[in-house]
Structure formats: C-alpha cells, structure tokens
Write a structure and sequence with these properties.
Shape: globular
Largest sheet: none
Number of domains: 1
Mean pLDDT: 83
Length: about 170
C-alpha cells in the first residue's frame, strides 16, 4: 500500500502543463485525489491478501479507487480497464505516477477479483461511506438535517393523517 498522504520531495506531476494541472486540481480528479483516495479504508481489504503467498497485489489505494470510479461513472469492466491504463484523469486521481505496466495495467480478472472480495465481504458500504463522510466534512455539509423527498413526505403524511387509508381530494 502506497500511502497517498506521503509527501514528495519532487513533484511527480511536473510534466503536466500549468493549465492542464490546474484543470486536474480544480476538477473531480483533484478532489478525488486529495480527499477521497486517502479516506479509502484499504485495511478492510488488505487482510484478504497474503504477503508471502502468490503474486503481489495491485496497489490497493488505486485498485479500490478504480472500483469507486467504475461505480461512479457506471462503467463496464472493459471500460474501467481502458480508463485505468490510458486516462490521465484517472492516473492523477488515483495518484498513479509510474509509466509501467505494473502501475497502469489491470486485467479483467484482477478487477473482478477485487470487486468480488469487496462484495462478498460487504465492504462496499465502508468504502463509500468513508468517501462520503470525507466530502461532507470538506464541503461542510451537515447530515443531521436531510431533505425529505416530497413523495416520501406525502406518503408519510397520508399514513399519519389518514391511518385507515381514507383520502380527501384537495
């Protein structure tokens, strides 16, 4: 696991033009990289891999981040593999600095296996909750008062005001 909070002596993204870098920092890739990626609870999935047996795993922050991005953008597995390999927004948001196959290539099987571990162990809620809580904190969103959808509100009102199912036309 490569800690995304670790500081660098040299900027690994200095090859980007100033305007490109500003666009990445100001857009979703910068928000994801700065706030969501470090909040991903990789310790919840790391225990499912053996450090001494088998091939080494993909870097877990970028792997779990890719699963979050896949769900966020409603991508197929094939599309996710393509974005992971070629999309500079994904590379920046997942802090993928190296230009190697090991860093920027995932097979469909690796993607499926990691998603399967998350799903079989009910870890998706922990992963998405951590990111949601971090964004709520960063953007100062209070979750103690949430908007109630008008449809839900009306149904609840009908149950309270008309408990026997009687309705009055207004």
């Amino acid at each position: 696991m490569k800690n995304p909070n670790q500081l660098d002596i040299f900027d690994p993204w200095d090859f980007l033009t100033p305007k490109t870098r500003q666009m990445l920092d100001a857009g979703w890739p910068g928000v994801f990289r700065e706030h969501i990626l470090p909040s991903i609870p990789v310790n919840t999935i790391s225990k499912y891999f053996d450090a001494t047996f088998g091939r080494s795993t993909k870097e877990l922050y970028s792997m779990l981040g890719a699963l979050v991005l896949q769900q966020s953008f409603h991508l197929s597995d094939e599309e996710t593999v393509q974005h992971y390999a070629f999309n500079i927004q994904w590379h920046y948001s997942l802090d993928m600095r190296e230009e190697t196959d090991d860093a920027k290539y995932i097979s469909l099987k690796t993607l499926w296996n990691n998603r399967n571990i998350v799903a079989q162990n009910n870890l998706e809620e922990d992963i998405f909750k951590a990111g949601t809580e971090k964004l709520a904190q960063v953007f100062k969103v209070t979750t103690d008062k949430q908007r109630i959808d008008s449809v839900h509100f009306l149904k609840e009102l009908e149950r309270e005001v008309f408990p026997l199912g009687r309705k009055v036309d207004c």
